[in-house]
Amino acid sequence: MLKSIRIxxxxxxxxxxFMAMVIVGVFxxxxxxxxxxxxxxxxxxxxxxSVAATLQHTDWQLEQQETQENLxxxxxxxxxxxxxxxxxxxxxxxxxxLTYVDENATRILEPDLILGSxxxxxxxxxxxxxxxxxxxxxxxxxxxxxxxxxxxxxxxxKDLGDIYQTLDQSKFIMIRATLLALGxxxxxxxxxxxxxxxxxxxxxxxxxxxxxxxxxxxxxVKSNDEIGQLASMFNHLTARLKTSLQEISSEKQKLxxxxxxxxxxxxxxxxxxxxxxxxxxxxxxxxxSREEAKDMTFDSxxxxxxxxxxxxxxxxxxxxxxxxxxxxxxxxSKLRASYAPYRSEEEDIDGVVLLLQDITEHERLEKMRKExxxxxxxxxxxxxxxxxxxxxxMLEGGVEDPVMQARFLQVIDDEAxxxxxxxxxxxxLSNLDYQQMKWDPKPVNLKELMDKVVxxxxxxxxxxxxxxxxxxxxxxxxxxxxxxAIEQVIINIVSNAIKYTPExxxxxxxxxxxxxxxxxxxxxxxxGIPSQDMPRVFERxxxxxxxxxxxxxxxxxxxxIAQQIIEAHGGSIHLYSRESKGTRVxxxxxxxxxxSEELASIQH
Length: 604
Ligand code: ADP
Hints:
- Helix content is 51%, strand content 20%.
- The chain contains 17 helices and 17 strands.
- It has helices at residues 2-55, 64-72, 105-108, 111-118, 161-211, 226-261, 280-285, 290-294, 298-302, 311-316, 360-395, 402-433, 446-463, 483-499, 546-551, 558-568, 597-603, and strands at 80-85, 92-95, 123-129, 134-144, 150-159, 265-270, 275-278, 323-328, 334-343, 349-358, 441-445, 467-470, 478-482, 506-513, 517-524, 572-578, 582-590.
- The longest helix is centred in the first third of the chain and has 54 residues, at 2-55.
- It is rod-shaped and about 205 Å long.
- Adenosine-5'-diphosphate binds at residues 492, 496-497, 500, 524, 526-529, 537, 542-545, 549, 554-560, 583.
């Protein structure tokens, strides 16, 4: 391209100079020719006038010798002069060219000029001689006698060969000058073109480097002309482009970080459904690898999960590319897919952005909340109905027997107790949920606490004729926490073992020191828990056998309260069970040493 600009410029200069030289040359040569011809003509006129003046009104015909001598005076003017008589032979009486004296003039000279001047006219004619075009100038003038009659002709012939030779030389000089000028033009044109194309080439090379991603390009500004302005505009453009690209790249990085680290999945496709972006969370939610997602489209990605999610359907939707759908995944998770269009600058829809939110947990909690309300209502309704019906029966006076009355009142009291227990447990759970438990944390001697619990539950154990095996540890084992809460947990777990073991069961308790924990194991050989119920036993109100649990005064909240208390103390609780074989509950508390600095620091 640059090459062609250079050649174009040189060609233009060349043609301009060539045309100028040709026009000037032709014009000058013509002027030169005209001037010389004019000069020659005037010379001929003056020479012939002078000859005529000498011969006019004289008897020149009779004085041939004298006339010849007169003409000899003109030999050096470089013209051929002929004095022609008016007679039938058109005799040349005298001439500067002696060869033709006494010859017939019409044979040597131009007859029409001779005849014309014999008729009284001044005649003139340029005669072409040969191929070179060298002509001679011929002029003929009449000569008059005393009676003003034409008696002869003065004929002058001037060979113009010299003039044309001079003109040829001039032409040759012009051609040489033209060639020289053209040579200089080519050199100057080359230099001028180079001075213009050089900076352009510099800009082009640097622009190509910029296209390759290297924006550290600066063009040297050498002048203040258009090229210089182009160079400084290029530098300005580079600087602007660099800043803009830096801004864009930093924005992109921010966006990338947001998209990569966000908790929701984001999928973007173009208007044909081709995937443009899918963030790691979306890949995880859709159980896809990046490789698998590479060739997928909007339709192939979503329509197998939800038939309504195709580009065609969401495009023809009344909200137009905007809405949400539920995706039920094979792994059981539920995703809410909200989609919206993104537009070009011309406001045309360019594609769709789809946001995936995992609502499995939300749904689960919502379900739990509903179940909880239903459970609480149900748990309260049963004792309330019993109390109400017993109270009504008594109010109606239907029970007069004091023994029966006492039994009725006992039932009412038991049901009221159950409700009170339920409300107490609910309040405790709520306090645990909102972390509003009023703990009184201090070092707790678990050995002592276990002895106390065993003593307190001794009665119930005996009632059910269970045997209890408990071998207390040799030394005291300490944990740190709220003693009452820890006691409540232990009572609850041991009570469950007592409750859910048929009479004459075998209960075992272990209190053991581990590396950093103290473990308490409560084991029974009772009814156990079916394996399908195992994952749910820590749920609120979950009871394997509702009727049996209720009958035994259980609320179904004990294990979940225990779990929350233990976890609040930094411990853990695990339950292992086999149906009809028995259950083992292992609780671990963080251990502290009685005489340790830790304990001392806590106590202070
Ligand atoms: P509840 O007040 O009904 O005892 P929990 O939350 O303490 O409630 O226990 C939940 C359920 O787990 C009980 O209803 C019972 O079905 C089961 N369970 C708990 N401990 C035992 C155990 N030692 N043996 C068998 N089943 C148990």
